[in-house]
Design goal:
heterodimer, A: alpha/beta, Rossmann fold, B: Rossmann fold, 18% strand
Chain lengths: 154, 150
């Protein structure tokens, strides 16, 4: 049976025009297309989602992720969220890592670079979480390949 | 395409140092895997390691002198302190990737600051020793490096 991968994209990722300067013109549908292509190629079942609604994102992360073997999340500007929301993020990620599910945080831009300083990396209390930032669409490609090699080792 | 993979302090102890965090692969076995992939894909991969901050700066300056296309740097603990490495990286006009075996942002707060990432194009962390080979494999397809291929 194929492993199931959930890719979650947070608020704001429906419009990617702010990245034009660094990564050329890209859109969420281009990212989805690329991810689909890679997943078909390596034999992963992909569910690709985006929401502008924080609550919906949490619900995807907390409830729906049960049915998946691995999760890739682009939380966008999560560090600007309220403290209570940050705790929810941490808890959700923590729950996933406790179940030994590979989780990778991805960002299109290098979030540490001046001018693209949109957020800080997620901080889960413990457990493992990968981090890929700054490769444009290819941040997702690298993350999918890393997830696949992790899943094939377990 | 020519790639330098520059490794900082204690990375020479990979495989024996806190393997529950850093894994059981040695730097040599990682390097062998990356060089093998490179030789089949037109990428000349050179691994280097030093425990000395200034030596890491020298490696970066060598990359400038030798017209290297890509630097992948795991500056290890110097990531969180070295302005010299930050400055050297800024002088290198090729493509730069910061790499960590673990994810520093999930660890002690003194590892949350990075002087390397703001001077780099992209960051890979927390993917274990496989992060190196994943990063090298990605270079083949990365649009920004397409004119450097083969």
């Amino acid at each position: 049976m194929k492993n199931k991968l959930l890719i979650l994209n947070g608020p704001g990722l429906s419009d990617l025009s702010i990245y034009d300067e660094f990564y050329g013109s890209i859109s969420l549908s281009m990212i989805e297309e690329k991810c689909t292509e890679i997943c078909i190629d390596i034999g992963l079942n992909l569910d690709f989602r985006q929401t502008d609604d924080e609550d919906e994102l949490f619900s995807f992360l907390l409830k729906d992720s049960d049915g998946f073997d691995a999760v890739i999340i682009n939380p966008v500007g999560y560090s600007h969220a309220l403290t209570a929301e940050l705790e929810r993020y941490r808890l959700a990620i923590h729950t996933l890592t406790l179940h030994k599910k590979p989780v990778i945080e991805v960002h299109i831009a290098n979030i540490f670079k001046q001018g693209t300083d949109i957020t800080k990396p997620l901080q889960a209390p413990e457990g493992e979480m990968g981090f890929v930032s700054g490769f444009g669409i290819y941040s997702y490609v690298l993350a999918i390949k890393a997830i696949n090699s992790k899943l094939s080792k377990t | 395409m020519k790639v330098y993979v520059i490794n900082g302090p204690n990375i020479n102890l990979l495989g024996t140092r806190e393997p529950e965090i850093y894994g059981y692969d040695t730097l040599e076995s990682i390097a062998t895997k990356c060089r093998e992939f490179g030789s089949h894909n037109g990428i000349d991969v050179e691994f280097m390691q030093s425990n000395y901050e200034g030596k890491l700066v020298d490696f970066i300056q060598d990359a400038i002198t030798n017209a290297i296309d890509v630097i992948i740097i795991n500056a290890a603990a110097y990531t969180h302190s070295s302005i010299a490495i930050h400055d050297a990286l800024k002088s290198f006009s090729g493509y730069k990737i910061e790499l960590h075996i673990s994810n520093p942002h999930l660890r002690e707060s003194f590892r949350h600051t990075t002087f390397v990432a703001p001077a780099a194009d992209a960051v890979v962390a927390g993917l274990g020793a496989d992060g190196y080979s994943h990063a090298i494999e990605l270079l083949v397809n990365l649009p920004v490096l397409q004119n450097k291929a083969k």
